Amino acid sequence: MSVLSVDLVVPREAFDVVARLEVPSGRALALVGPNGAGKSTVLAAIAGLVDATGTLRLDGRDLGGMPAELRGIGVVFQDFLLFPHLTVRDNVAFPERVRGASRDVARASAQSWLERFDLGALAERHPQALSGGQAQRVAVARALASQPAVLVLDEPMAALDVEVRDEVRDDLARYIRDFGGPTIVVSHDTADAAALADEVAVLERGRIVQRGTLAELAAAPATPWIARFSR
């Protein structure tokens, strides 16, 4: 079983963000906490997008010294960050193109991912022509097309309209289950944490102050914020 082991420190002006946690394959951890607690910073450090000290290992293999593109971390950003000048197909093909695949090979692989996500008919559209739910599915497909060992998602429901969140949340939960590797999801919503993750870690002012299931947090909250979040 693959285990992602995180022991990272990111210096910030107000306080350092310290992330010490383990996530095994087939499990999803929701990272929650107040605004400004450092949740997105933790994901960025894991993905190699910000400088951090410490260690990041997967099955004992050191990922921390690798550049972001070689870590095998699939990232879904809060605003999805699809390339507006590329079609849906070429957005999903991008990870393979970065790894050196030819345009035809990368686009054929991307099309298979789009079909898997029921997006095949949208292959030639550009991101600005997509609904929020469609854009999210494209972003997840692009992350998985990179064949990652680890999947991290930063507030994946935040950019969606309330009317479509329940349906899209169910789809995303299925994609995470099917992925099978270690997954970390930043969230600020109890419903998202319950649907998308097996366990919750709470970050306050850059420190993980409690970890457990939502039921465990609700039964014995370690801080007032956790008591409000888990009720």
Describe this structure in words.
Helices cover 37% and strands 23% of the residues. It is an alpha/beta fold and 231 residues long. The chain has a single domain, classed as 3-Layer(aba) Sandwich (Rossmann fold), CATH 3.40.50. The strands form 2 sheets. The chain has a 6-stranded mixed sheet with strand order 6-7-8-3-9-10, sandwiched between helices. A 4-stranded antiparallel sheet has the order 2-1-4-5, with helices on one face. The longest helix is centred in the C-terminal third of the chain and has 18 residues. 39% of the residues are buried.
Mean pLDDT: 92
CATH architectural grouping: 3-Layer(aba) Sandwich
Strand content: 15-25%
Order of helices and strands: EEEHEEEHHHEHEHEEHH
Reading off the top of the CATH hierarchy, the class is best stated as Alpha Beta
Distance between the termini: 33 Å
Number of strands: 10
Tell me the radius of gyration: 17 Å
Would you tell me which CATH topology applies? Rossmann fold
